[in-house]
Structure formats: C-alpha cells, structure tokens
Amino acid sequence: MHRIRELFYLLQRLYNCHEWWPVHENTDPFLEVSIGAILTQNTNWENVEKAINNLIKEGLLNWENLDFVRMEKLKECIRPAGFYNQKAIYIKNFVKAVKDLSPENITRDFLLSIKGIGEETADSILLYGLGKPYFVVDAYTKRLFYRTGITEKQNIPYRKVQKMVMKVFPADVYTYRLFHALLVEHCKKYCRKKPICRECPIRNICRQNLK
Predict the structure, then answer these.
(1) Domain count, the chain
(2) Following DSSP, what letter does each residue of 163-194 receive, concatenated?
(3) Mean pLDDT lowest for which of 18-22, 41-45, 170-174, 185-189?
(4) What confidence tens digit (pLDDT) does each residue in 33-53 have?
C-alpha cells in the first residue's frame, strides 16, 4: 500500500492540480456534475463540455426542464458527447429518480440501481457532486497502477482498486479528488495507451521502463 502513497506524493510534486471537476456559474453543481458524469462515458471531456454548453444555452440544465424536455431535443443538445441516444435515456432515468430526493438519501447502491449508472459514474456523482468519500477509478487509474507495479494486472475489478486507495486514504474527499486529478493529468501527458516513456518524470518506478 505504500506504493499508492508514494505515487500520490510523486505526482503532487510534479503537477499543480486542484480537486478537479469544472462547473459553470449559476448552475446546480450537483446536477451539472451528475449530467457530466453520464455524458463522459466513452468520450473525452472536450466533447462533454460542448454538450453541457448546449444544455445551458437552451436553458435545460435544471431538474424540471430536463425532466420534461422532449427526447429529440435532448438528444440534439448532447450529440457532441456521442452515444446520444443511450445517454439521453440515461439522463432522463437519472433525473426522474433523483430530482425529488435530498442529498443524504442518495446512496451508492441507489445510484447503481438506475439504468445507465455504473460504478465510475456513481462514484463521480458522489465524490464531485455530493462531496461523499468514494474514490473514482477510471482507465487512467488502472493503467498507471499496473505500470508502476501497484497491481499485477491492468484489468482488475473496480472495487478492488477503489478499496486499495480508500484503505491508504480513509474517507478523505479532498485527497480522492486531488489524486484522481493527478492521475488524469499524468496519463494524458505521459502514460498514454502508447506511453511517452523517455520523457516521463516517474519512469524510474515504472515496469515499462524496467523491461
């Protein structure tokens, strides 16, 4: 487990990251984070931003309007995020299930019961939208943990990776947000699917470099 802590502090020294999830002014942060978490499935953040900006421009980024907007209108707004037919349904499902609930009644199990909400999406909503201590595991996390020898395989169960981090940093919302941001930053810059090992500042602890 000390390797997780070591990686966190190494990345913290390298990058000036803050607890990351961009939110626009004059929107409901919980709603925007939740819709963003659904839209970011299988796409990049630049495309999500375009879709969210479309929703804001059309006055749709509020609970009532999303609940009652015509499906075709919603699909058109979120088209830049891809898979818009599915994601429009997921958004509708989420809004109907959540809009009348108070935050303390929104649990991980409840979110996972909503069609279209998987573990990464649920934990993103909980961590960034509600400030609840659940570490978000994404493809970047699994990739870097494997390459730095924290895990023996890259494709290991989501909850296993999450529990590893949450054991090292128990119930720490700020650190979970920061660590996630650091992992994303490093993987986008160096630890890509085809890694840029020669320039990587942590190559000395990476199994890619030790082959």
Answers:
(1) 2
(2) HHHHHHSTT-HHHHHHHHHHHHHHHHHT-SSS
(3) 18-22
(4) 999 999 999 999 999 999 999
Residue 7 falls inside a structural domain: yes
For the chain, how many residues are written?
Answer: 211
| Spatial distance between the Cα atoms of 204 and 155, rounded to a whole number of angstroms | 23
Instruction: Select from 129, 153, 183 the last residue of a domain.
Output: 129
What distance in Å separates the CA atoms of residue 108 and residue 27, rounded to the nearest whole number?
Answer: 23
What the block records as the tokens of 209 is 């470099």
pTM of the model: 0.94
**Looking at the structure, do residues 104 and 157 belong to the same domain, yes or no?**
no
- Nearest CA to 51 out of 87, 27, 103, 92 is that of 87
Q: Which residues form the domain of 34?
A: 29-129
